[in-house]
Fold each of these.
Amino acid sequence: MIDTHCHIDYPQYQEDFDTFIARQKAGGVSKIIVPGVSAESIQTIKAVCQKYPDYLLAGIGLHPTEVKEDWQEQMQQIANELPKNYIALGETGLDYHEDITFKEEQKTVFKQHLKWALQYDLPVIVHSRDAVEDTLSCIREVDTNHTLQGVFHCFSGSYEVAKQITDMGWFLGIGGVITFKNCKLAEGLAKGIPLDFIVLETDAPYMAPVPNRGKLNESIWMCYVVEKLAEVYACSPEHIIAQTDLNAKKLFRLGN
Ligand SMILES: [Zn+2]
Ligand SMILES: [Zn+2]
């Protein structure tokens, strides 16, 4: 299993870091992608990823909820870092859920990430919350030749939205949400979203799947997401793991 979205640089994981990693490796997690969220996170992510090169892989980006007064300085620091040793731009995107004070700046920042992704030929990790229309129009505006690739991480949208994303050749990051009661995601996928466009993720420390909902999330718990996907696609958990691994390797251009 490849965890395509895990904030393992967060303080919650630092105390027993090596034990944590050993547990993920023993539980069948072959790689973990650590997305950037701010300029400040650059150094902490570097520090954790250096401990386990080829196992922990870093992204770099400015999360939409981190777009505040100092966004220009943060973007400058990110620009200075690019493109060395990063496997993806992100997370980046639009989040209108709680605060839309910096709505326009969020769009500017997101589009700049998309331009960098084109310039440096990197995939994009997209965070989109209550903003899917604007997110898609930013992508269409920048990626006029349809060369970008990316993932809508922590996807929980409808079949119609999933279809728009996968029709562009982009991926859906599926995590704990699919196991939540009252969640319609499984039904949406079952309507006809091919497994070829799905990657696994935790979004740890958040989004722990049932039966561990509310706990500090771990990549090994993606097994519960795999179980649910096996039901949706009427296949074995092994097949889900093999196909989502292949998808993640394709998207993030990972070796074996
Ligand atoms: Zn996110
Ligand atoms: Zn995240």
Amino acid sequence: MQIARQVPAGDGLVIELGGGTGTVTQALLESGVTPERLIVVERAPAFVHHLRNRFPDVPVVHGDAARLAHFLPPDVRIDAIVSCLPLRSLPRHETAVIVEQWHQVLGENGVVIQFTYDIRPLRYIAAYHPDFVICSSRIVWANAPPARVVTTCKRATVASDRPVGAGHQHSRSAVEIKSRSQS
Ligand SMILES: C[S@@+](CC[C@H](N)C(=O)[O-])C[C@H]1O[C@@H](n2cnc3c(N)ncnc32)[C@H](O)[C@@H]1O
């Protein structure tokens, strides 16, 4: 799956937002992202239940992406945020809060990978924060239905404004404690 190929190699965490039925979770695992490196955040209790059954080794946080920083201990490095959130249909202020969270938790060289079945050009992640810039945007025609995958990076110029947790190794146990406490 295209979305999984965009995830940078490394040992920083990969956060999937809006895990739903687990199609993207499965693709991430199949592409080599280990369960220890992955955290899935999902707001709907039924999907949380389903995801925990389907992927017993993957921490699944029952929570809202708008509070992402709250779920993570301060010493984690986030390499990638994989979002399947329906951002285009959310109220603007909700999207603004979510994008601000991404900026807060993402490591310096981290990326946000947004997946959407709405294949119109998508510029709003970058439009919501001056430190984000679109690195790639492509339609995956082989997907059924076709989908757009947009990768957004942090501008290199923000080195002085170091995000929370950047440059540290993650603590698996701390992540587990946080993830359990959310539901
Ligand atoms: C397009 S669907 C998920 C697609 C998913 N990749 C799948 O395979 O099913 C979007 C998901 O985002 C979840 N969601 C929507 N808003 C959310 C939010 N603010 N925080 C966390 N999850 C959210 C929904 O409950 C839904 O499961």
Amino acid sequence: MGKYSIYKCVYLHLMVLLFVFVSTDRAYSALLLPVDDAYTRVAAPDTKFGNLDDNIIFLERIIVDSESISSAEAHFKYDLSVIPANQIITSATILLDPFTFTGSPEISLFEMGDNWDESTITYNNRPTFTQADKLGEKPFSESIFDAFDVTAAAQANYLTDGFISLTAVISGPLQTASSVSMYSQNIFSGNNNFTPIYLNVEYQEIPEPATLSILLLGGVISFRKKIRSPHF
Ligand SMILES: [Ca+2]
Ligand SMILES: [Ca+2]
């Protein structure tokens, strides 16, 4: 049995395992409300805008000396530990749903650290983030932003610290001012007129260890037989 055949055999067994893994019908979904949300302003770098009486999340890009700069950022934190243990997140999306906007905003979404809360965050003390933390960029169209797919980041944070924190800024090569206003989780009362920024998560149970063991054992036995056989 050649090297290629061994690889092919391993590959096929992995695909069978993967199929069993994802074809389970034990799938769930959850709409997660932010546990913290706030915005911060460059022009007021020590002012807090995320307290309980702040119902608005605000994003802004302004013109300074003929250049547009991001002047207000939005921050959201979600608690992924509400998802039970031993799940795999198959989808996580966030829809930045504005109730009003100006200009032609284009939104960039970044992952940031969790070391902040809505009552104390300011522009100066917020966790920093870099271009390497960018999860996506979306133009604004027809009053609705496309949903950002943050599945990989959500799964990684679910497996580690259990929280995912995101920052949205207005970016892009814009030469005009723009702004976006959204409702914060603090205004949420179950009234659809005040929709906060949800994280929509879909997840599935990981197969029981016993089931996995049987599958793996079956794969190994079959693999050994194929190694002894001259043909694949
Ligand atoms: Ca808030
Ligand atoms: Ca985290």
